[in-house]
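ugh finaly. both done.
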Amino acid sequence: MSSNDVPLPVPLPELSAATTTSSSVEDKSDEKDAPIAGTGINFADEDAEVAHQHRPSGIGLPRVGTKELRRELTRDEKELANAGYQKETPDTKSEGKLVDIIEQHLTPEALAVKMGADFNVKVPAESLGLTTAEAARRLATNGANVLTPPVKKGAWRKYFDSLTSLFNLLLILCGVLEYVLLGVDYHANFANTYLGAILIAVAFLNAGIEYYQVAKSEAILASFLALIPPACTVLRDGQISTIPAQGLVHGDVVLVRMGDKTPADLYIFAAGSLKVDNSSLTGESEPQERHAVPEGDPAKAAEAKNLVFNSTLVVSGEGWGVVVRTGDNTFIGQIANLTGNEAGKKSPLAEEIESFVKKISGLAIGSAILFFIIGIASVYKGHAASTVTFAITILVAFVPEGLPATVTVSSFLPFLALHETKQHPPSAFALNRREKNGFKERSREGSPRSRGELLPFFTHFYFLSTGIQTLGAITLLATDKTGTLTRNQMTVSNVWTGCVMYTDFQANNDDDEAQPLVIGATNMTTIIDVCALNSKIKFNRTDIPFSQREVLGDATETGLTRFAAKYVPNSDYDAARAAAPVVHSVPFNSETKTALVIVEKTHVNGSMTLLIKGAPERVLERCVTYLDRDGKDKKLDDEFKVMYEGAYDYMASRGHRCIATAQLLLPAAEYPQGFEFVKAPFDGYTFVGLVSLEDPPKHGVREAIGTLRLAGIQVAMVTGDHPKTAEAIARKINLITGETKADVAKRTGRPIDTIDEDEYDAVVIHGDRIDSLEGWEWDQIFRHTEIVFARTSPKHKLEIVKHAQQLGHIVGVTGDGVNDSPALKRADLGIAMNLSGSDVSKEAANMLLLDDNFASIVHGVHEGRLIFANLKRSIRYTVTHSIPEVIPQLLYILVPVPLPLSALLILVIDLGFELFVALTFAFDPPESASAIMSLPPRRPVTERSIASVKSKALNRIKTQAIDPETGLAKEPSRVGKWISSLKAPFTRTFWREAFETVDGEVLVDNSLLSYSYLEAGVIEMIGALVGYFVVFYKSGFTPNDLRTAQKAQNNTPQILYFLSNSPDFTNSAGRVLNAQDQVDAWAKAQSIMYLSIFIIQCFNIFACKAKFLPPFGKQVLTNYWNFAGILGGAALAMFIIYTPPLHTVFGGTYKLSPLYWLIPVAFGFLLLAWSTARVYITRRRLNSEKVQPIKGLSMYATQYSAKSATRPVKA
């Protein structure tokens, strides 16, 4: 039977009568003009009376309570409210491609003339169609029926983009500069060629690592999208044939049947029970009926009854259509074009890293220039080449050369798995953590990979670039409903029979009186028989178990069949149908709105039983009795009708589709065995019960949304479905737990327009209102914690994402349909469904949800936050060594003292043990398992942050040039942008925004800089310098002796100490130190300087992790890779310092006693003590930042089955 032709349930009391609760699209014309009850914001129609309109308080607007407001806002209020919501400059090129579909308005005759098509409306199979020659001509003229693939960068362009990052350019510049000096004085500067080569190699290596990860990601994504082109049935030269869909042209006559994917946009001129699944285009979960409209359909294309669109699935019936649009001009093509014109945004992490790189590069360049000036005027007077090398040393000390590699690799290492053979369990460096999170290690094909194969994958997610980190940072998750939150599969949820309500699915808005459904309940067997035997469903195969079959038919029939198969005796659906063969049937039709069968089912009075199902009021009017609680016939009376209405309202109020069932036991005297039916009995039936179906939430969705909200993430539903259906689902999955404006009005008995914004939490916004919303209205919507957008188009979804971003939200979008793809592309993070998602949505997204399980997003957020925390630890650790590297260089110039560290040793620190140890932070477990998901997002959207965003946007508006013709801001030229960037540091606004405090946490914040530069960095610097001066002192040089010896190079004539050919030096105690003594002393001092930084950094590995707990205990010792990094660093240090052949390059010495190591060890323990004190100092502030509990969340399991031992209790 048809799911769309079931009568609509009665409206709820709080709804306008024009607002239905069904998801059917047949009443769209009515709902457009009807007020949308249940919405949080009351939008007056243009011609409506607005005298009592209230403007609730908003961001940047004065609080007004319940007082009446003027209709017009002041100029300042308008400017501030609309700041940040400015329209973007239109893309005229893309607008030209967007062609409105209007063919649905034409009659078949007019269409035949326009398309040059030859088809027979009365006998479609006798149509002639196009000739082969004409089809070939049109194909050559208009092109193939394929979507234009998006333009992608070539491999070399991608590598070049990676290479031209600021850090890499800085390293290349320094390396080239060393080779320039080679031309100035070859012999004096030859040793610096090692430094130049290393710097350039590091830049190319960083670029190579980043390029490899991105290229590998895109290659795997391409494999997901690789599909065989579909074929279609076309009529040409009067003959039916099968051709590839890409060969279709305008005017082709095409036949589509149940199970086919529509190959192009078709105008239907003949059809029989044709229904198509438009969920991927419009978001509607119910199949839509399509048929010929002889006079043309005046509706919009998406709602037209005589159009079917490219890529939609035919779920029942068949139809003949004429191709009216192909390729990029199809409905899906226009959405794809809209997606292609949306530039993907940089991830928040990428923006933060770029900002940090600019700041650290500016600091490094400024310091290098300053030290060059000081050096050329003092120590290196007259030696420009040596001064340049020294300046490069300063720059190298400030720039963490391994940071790009650390960021890139740290993003991917937790999801790189090393599989072994089938005989051995997988051993992966990140496997332990993933198993604890419930991840399962399997390849995309489902089988273990060969030993040693290293591939990036994530059992739940497949992501690109920094996608997983963005998932950890999102503040708002805009999610599609159909196929994402729900199963996109109609499922029986309630059964009412014998005046008792049973439920097969537990929801937080179920009545406590609803009982768990059990097969032994009264009359339940009869309900099962109606669902199983009165069905026209078909299967792709019947030689496999029912659970493995693909059910072919409309959504309602499929849902009833699955329900019946679940409860038939012995769970044998085929046996149950075979035991009661059908002897007569009357298929569903739109007039009777019922489907009837007569089967051979024995009863007391005969051998045949009539079973009927259909629209509740149509079935009920044919009944004279009903089955009571004892399964006995009882006459219909007013008491039963009251209970029936209550049950019907109960189901309808939850957005369910209601089906009534009845039976008639045919007496053998009137209908003997073998009776041939010409017409079935029309009335006198016995009412059995009501069955309600819904598209239920997926398993785990309720808990997932509750967990996300408890993590401070706002979750909004954006769907093309009906508002009441969307709200009903939202209440079942923790997305709405509070009251809407209409709920408050009903509870308090007050007029709805007197309800203030602060009195309710939930809003349900109809898509028709989105185009006319003003800035302050968007502010009001996003201030609410529970938001549902219903009846939205692809353009609406895109606008929602844009407006949320303009308020400062980091927006994640989930979806599976073509209609979701523009929003997926525009969002900070687009998450597409892998199994049910369309190709266009996968192409637009940065992340694929491999198992289509929305609940996996919780694990993704957890992992994303953990990766960010670990990356921040890694940077905190890496940046700390800058102070003990730079300050000694300053002493070298200002005091002066012998150079504590050479540029090569600094590079060994940065690119040797530091880089590898920094990478091991990627495998750190969370410091506190509960804390990571109880804190708000790191950049939360607050009143202050929104005010700041709007203030900045207002400043930009006032300085932008406006096009007088369009009224839109002009895009400045490249030269104009460059000039503006040069002027910016000299403006007050630039410095005010630069030092403006922000809510939340960024990658490199004041806390990190304070720890690295002022706290741990200073402790490390003091420890290294103490070791440096102690070693020199034990070698016969006091600090004053060092100053005297170093200043001698400025004497005339110049005297250079600490070289192999230096003259003897007499210290302050009168001891004479020859050249070898000087060289050994300097080598030991540089060695202990290097070792001190290494040893204290080993303690810093654990100290920099301490945020919630002290740096002691199991939580800091579980990452064994940290210890591997320490051992590797120790081996490298021993190799460089104590290996004589390397002394020529690095300057170490084997004469350094290990007793000197105790000095940095002591300072390492001091660092741990300080880190512990820091934890207790900041603990109270961190606890106060946790997200407060949310009232009304139901965190028990989504799926409830009657087979469970106990009923779950609401939280």
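ok and the 2nd:
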Amino acid sequence: MDDYPAFSLDLSVPLLLTLGIAPDTPYESPLGPDLKEQAILLRSELPLVDSEQAKALLRYFQASDASNLPWNGRDEKRTYRFRVRAAERTLLLPPRQARLPENLEAPEAPVLHSPFSPLSPICSLYPDGLLNERWLQKHGELVPSVLICFYNLTSDPTLTTLDDNKIKTDVNHIRSLLSKYGYRTRLAVVLISDKAPSSVEGVQERLENIQRGCGVDQKALFLVPPKDSQDALERSADTVLAAIYAQSLEYYRDMGRHSRKKRGRGVAPQPTVPPTSGTSQTLSLAGWNVRYDFKSALFSEYRQEMDGALRSYEQAYETLMGPELFETIPSWSPRWNEARYLADVIAIRCLRCLLWNGLPSGAVRRWQAHRDKIRDLVDRRGRGTNNYGWAAWEARWAAVMAELIEKVDIPELSTSATSTLFLQPEKTLLSERLQPWERLHHQGYWYHLASRHQYLRRTLAHTMPEEDRRSPSDSPASQVASKAFTYDTYMCPDPHDEYPLRHSGTDHGGLIIDALMRSLSEFKKRKQHRFVAEVSLECARELSAKQDWGKIVELLRPLWNDTSFRSEGWMSIAEELSWSLRRAASKAGEAELVVAIDWELLNRSYTRHPNWNYDITKSLEGISSASRPTVSTEGNSPDSLLVPCFVFKHEEGKAGQTTRAQLSITSHAMEASTPLVLHSLQIHFEGSIKTIALTHEPNATSEDQAQGHAVLQSVSLKEVASEDVSDRSRLDELDKIKSLDGSANLTIAPGRTAIFEMDIPLREPGTASAASLRLSLQTESFDLEHTAPFRVPRSPSVWYNSATAKKRVSRANPLAVRILPRPPKMEIKTVSLMDQYYTSEALELEFEVLNAEDADASVKLDAALFGESPPEFIVKVGEEAEEHASAPEGEESRVIGAPLGQLESSQAVKFTARINAIQLASRYEFTVRTSYHLSTDPATLITQTAVFELNIVNPFEANYDLLPRLHPDPWPSLFDYDNVVDQSGDNTLVTPSGLSQTWCLITRYASFASEDLRVVELDLSVHPSPSIRTTVTNLTALSPDGLRVSPKTIEEASFNIAAQKTSLDDRIPSSLDVSFLIKWTRPDAPADATPNTTILPVPRLHIFNTEPRVLATASYITPDIKQKLLVLDIVIENASNHLLTFGLSMEPSDDFAFSGAKQTTLHLLPVSRRSVTYRLLPVVRGTWLKPGLVVRDKYFQKVLRVIPTEGMKLDKEGFLVWIPPEDDGE
């Protein structure tokens, strides 16, 4: 769009001009010399505001300039848009009425018009012109919509009145000048205070006084007090700009009304002086309607009302292109090109409005419609479209669309977000069937289209006859006149300047390159590789004509490095690319690139050039290089110059043995090219096989078989140790081996296949495969390294039995060999391994390693314990050897590299693994792995692995019963203060004074071991509690030798737990955490052996309930069984804070007689217990006696359950007392 005159296509942004602050670059009015004499001078007489705050405010105003913002309305955060210009104290405005020329005879009382109007004789449009860029410049750069005057508001009370009056006088002067000359520019005043106001009312009064004296709107007067920070100043500036923006929009709204009013008159105005020369005609009414519609559209654009602007532009365009205007202009007239210029400007502004409104397909259709309209018009009334001028316009028109897309900044076409190539049509066009070119493509498409027309422009320019290319001074007048009607020169040079005879004219190549480079940039951003290649080749052709070899190399090198053309079979493109790049690289002195290209051009897939010497060693003849080039190439294609293939003869092999393999290299070089003599080659493997290195030896002693197109050589390999190992004794033998070296004749003739057969030693078990081949070529002038990966062939590989006999290898992957481990003869035995181990028991495992090989072996030991949270363990070899501790990590605990030393044949060594005690039942795998090298084959690593299962189980399981017992001590009284608190006065608790209870914990434990165990001690561990003091009594006594517990047998143990609260105030329910401890040993353990302790958790024991409970105890008062009276004590405990009443009743029975209250009532104080005694005389023996005792809560009428103690039991109906039988002798 730079081809169009300035201001023709600029975005319409309201012009804001400031007075009163000196900018860094003062505003200079762009008025021409002819108008500066008539210009209106606005001058402010007050001094400039030179404070730092004022300068910072102006800098922020200038930084807010919206001239270079994207042409869209998506920035919703910005509430204003201005083109900001800053003058000091003077401003020149264009005159409203133009003077008449001095040499022109003026009529009486002439009506003067604007100097930008075709009605004024001094205007270039006089008398019948339409509109040019000077009117657009008027509103874009000359006449501001808002004029801001900055003044200093002094805080000196002695000068306030004087300064305020000066401000009012200055503002009134400027306002009167604007009004006098008919300018509608809005005037705003910004007062910058030098100090913070001490009184808000005083400042407000001054502002109101200035406002009334100046006659400015209240919304146009602003005060900027001193600001403490830049952010506060910017907020004040934003407030001023936002308020002024509304007035600016109102200004352009008034201008739009004025234009529509003038159009509505329906009369063409008369010029100041009637024309007397030329066509002697004035602008028609249709032309004035075009001007008025264009003005209305422009003012709508200033207001960002794009819909209204588009309607006015379209109306102006239709009128301009209608039969009443454009059709009446002769093509030889300068007004023809002026009308075309205006049509282009209107069309481009329509495109901008459509893109602003989000109508991409509508914009493309509008672009095509204008092109077709102009084509038809030029073909019918102009000089036709078969000339360089029309091609230049088409190229410019395509470039305009690309630049519009860039300036509009469409997010969907932004390469930073997506790689969209074109936009989907708007919703209004979804139902239509659109052509592909009716979708808005990215900029690269349009620049590429422009380059096509630039090509055509050059072609048409070069077809001009010589007589048309001569300068007018060298041609007869008749010939000059004929040229004027032959070529379209709209916005392009004349024929003698486009393509002159004696000197250079238009740089067509530069124009083509510029368009191609712009399109190339867009295609690269969107990764359109085919377009990138096509455009790069076109650029290279044009740059070749300019001999810009460095640029050609820069363009084509990335394409040449990309192998997609070769792999996809586009050999013609690859060949053209290679030759073009080779020519440029040789001119630019790129020696390495020249060699790499010559290496590729040796391939017979390309066309043979008869005059080219296909000898890679002579590639750099005539090319100088500062240093010896080293070239690296890669061959990934099956059609590369050298195609390698590697085959293992057998699918499997064993460590310590060799396997046979063949390497074949097929040359695809030109038939008459010089054979390639390689310096060396290397075969790289994945796995344990070391690199194979072959060097060239023309007179190799190996037997060659050369028949037909194949050469078969047998190569012997030898292992070469690394020479840079400082301490070889600390490395494995395998690590010392660097490579497998050999020699062979590495001459490869064109069209032939070189086969190298070799026996490869296998060392480590696993899978090994051939990965890549590296070839080295050394000449007098350069070194070349070629790398080619081995690929699994799609068709079956072949094995060469001889140079002429071969067979297919039907394996899926002939590149790989599976190396089986050498069968180890090292034996790993257990000396003492049990089927079962127990928790809380330290394990000591003993193993023996026996060397059953026929040779001595250097052995290392690895041991690992696998399982969940494995414990640490220690490996000890021999009695005095060093101990090796494991390092737990995750689910394994491992000892690595414990040396067992040099074992002779049939020699054995023992080692011990001590594993820490394991607390939880679990299963582990203890893995023992020996790695060793035989003295007869130190390069082969042999391993032997043994896995042992360790089953860790709990030796005991138990269940528990908690039975209540009667505590023998009386409960403390709630009312007995002396027995609770020490009388010494120190308020310390002498002894626990709370409630006390006794419980009996009966444990039944069973052995889950697979063998007998000896229990030496039973104990009960109560976890301490701050509020309860407990005492445990073991009721089960064991012999000094312990108790031998057999598997799956149940034993019983009882413990009395006496518990007492530390405070009588603490009567809440409590619980105890208890563990059952069993200390045991194995039966064969020595007497002084430390016993193992198995800790069994006991379910939480809940004691001290607040509910009342009833306990029953039974005893005999006489030893004589016949006279034995049973004493039944009923104890009721009340642990609550309430007074409770209970009723007791004893039912008579046929089984016993009793003495005691048949029915009675007991009253229990809070925190107390009482007992009732019954004497029973049983009449039956050897049975359970069931007393019919009922205890009832009088208040709740609830029957309480009687809890039996020792010698008693409980069933569904109540408690039972055991009556022993009489002796047999009685």
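summary for the 2nd one i guess: The CA atoms of residues 110 and 232 lie 56 Å apart.
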